Write a sequence for this structure.
């Protein structure tokens, strides 16, 4: 799961700087940088705040962060089949 990169990509697509986004989330730019580089893992309450600032439900943020290695081998074919369609739908719905 690559949560930090997903957060960074959505933030950038929405045209926000790290400083702007960190301020809106009530965290420091340094902490946001650590989250986005996957060197720090925020707790669940902070993730809820971040997802609220992204205007995106936390489960959607988690789904967008999933990679093949996060899915059981016996379910990867199904994941690879639906993943592009679901991500496209999410991107359209949430304007990611």
């Amino acid at each position: 799961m690559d949560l930090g990169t997903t957060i960074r990509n959505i933030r950038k697509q929405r045209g926000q700087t790290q400083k702007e986004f960190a301020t809106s989330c009530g965290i420091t730019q340094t902490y946001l940088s650590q989250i986005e580089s996957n060197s720090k893992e925020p707790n669940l309450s902070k993730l809820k705040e971040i997802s609220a600032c992204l205007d995106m439900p936390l489960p959607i943020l988690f789904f967008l962060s999933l990679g093949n290695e996060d899915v059981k081998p016996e379910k990867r074919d199904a994941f690879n089949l639906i993943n592009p369609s679901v991500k496209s739908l999410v991107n359209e719905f949430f304007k990611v």
Observations:
- Helices lie at 3-13, 18-25, 29-36, 44-53, 58-65, 76-94.
